[in-house]
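Example for tutorial group B:
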């Protein structure tokens, strides 16, 4: 058996090493089965909806016994959470490609473009990540604790908050009473998220040069944050 701390460590889902050491052949086999479970769950959710996901259905999809899945995950909810975590890790990777050495207004546009690009290239992950509460703030969270959860180091929202705060610190973005870093970041997130959702849904086949329109929209967002 793989130790519980290894089985449940999210890094184990995504990398070929654990705690700085290479995985053994047995651990690599375990990792491959974990990934097969996550891939099967994501496909089932995309095709049939999250309510129709079951341990039996996942097991059938990968030719595994339902009981055997519990060696890898504690149940369906844990699998959904792992799929969402993997999606968020990939989103962070996309946004991390934005050039932070650019002027902050250009950097913010690159972050937004990367967010939309991730959604378009990974629609199953993207839609599940934001349809499930598995990785969101807890219902009892205060604004302060929710911010801490969402803006933890290395998170996608943390990247956005950092960019907005940098813009304020440099005097590029103009904060005012009741509309500071968090509110600005929320506006930017809502805008790019709305663009992404429309691309994946209602406007999926609409004849429009989305890249040009999105660039113009993000430029106008920047103008608003600058107070222009």
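The residue assignment follows.
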């Amino acid at each position: 058996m793989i130790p519980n701390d290894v089985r449940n460590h999210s890094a184990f889902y995504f990398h070929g090493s654990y705690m700085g050491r290479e995985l053994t052949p047995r651990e690599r086999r375990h990792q491959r089965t974990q990934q097969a479970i996550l891939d099967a769950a994501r496909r089932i959710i995309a095709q049939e909806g999250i309510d129709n996901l079951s341990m039996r259905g996942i097991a059938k999809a990968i030719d595994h016994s339902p009981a055997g899945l519990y060696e890898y995950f504690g149940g369906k909810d844990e699998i959904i959470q792992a799929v969402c975590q993997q999606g968020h890790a990939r989103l962070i990777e996309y946004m991390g490609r934005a050039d932070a050495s650019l002027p902050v207004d250009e950097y913010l546009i690159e972050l937004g473009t990367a967010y939309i690009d991730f959604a378009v290239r990974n629609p199953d992950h993207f839609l599940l990540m934001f349809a499930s509460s598995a990785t969101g703030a807890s219902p009892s969270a205060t604004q302060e604790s929710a911010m801490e959860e969402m803006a933890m180091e290395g998170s996608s929202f943390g990247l956005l908050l950092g960019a907005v705060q940098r813009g304020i610190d440099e005097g590029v973005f103009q904060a005012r009473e009741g509309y500071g870093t968090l509110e600005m970041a929320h506006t930017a997130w809502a805008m790019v998220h709305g663009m992404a959702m429309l691309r994946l849904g209602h406007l999926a086949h609409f004849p429009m040069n989305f890249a040009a329109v999105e660039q113009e929209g993000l430029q106008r967002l920047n103008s608003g944050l600058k107070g222009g």
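Residues 84-225 form a domain with the Tetracycline Repressor; domain 2 fold (CATH 1.10.357.10). Compare this with the pattern of hydrophobic and polar residues in the output above.
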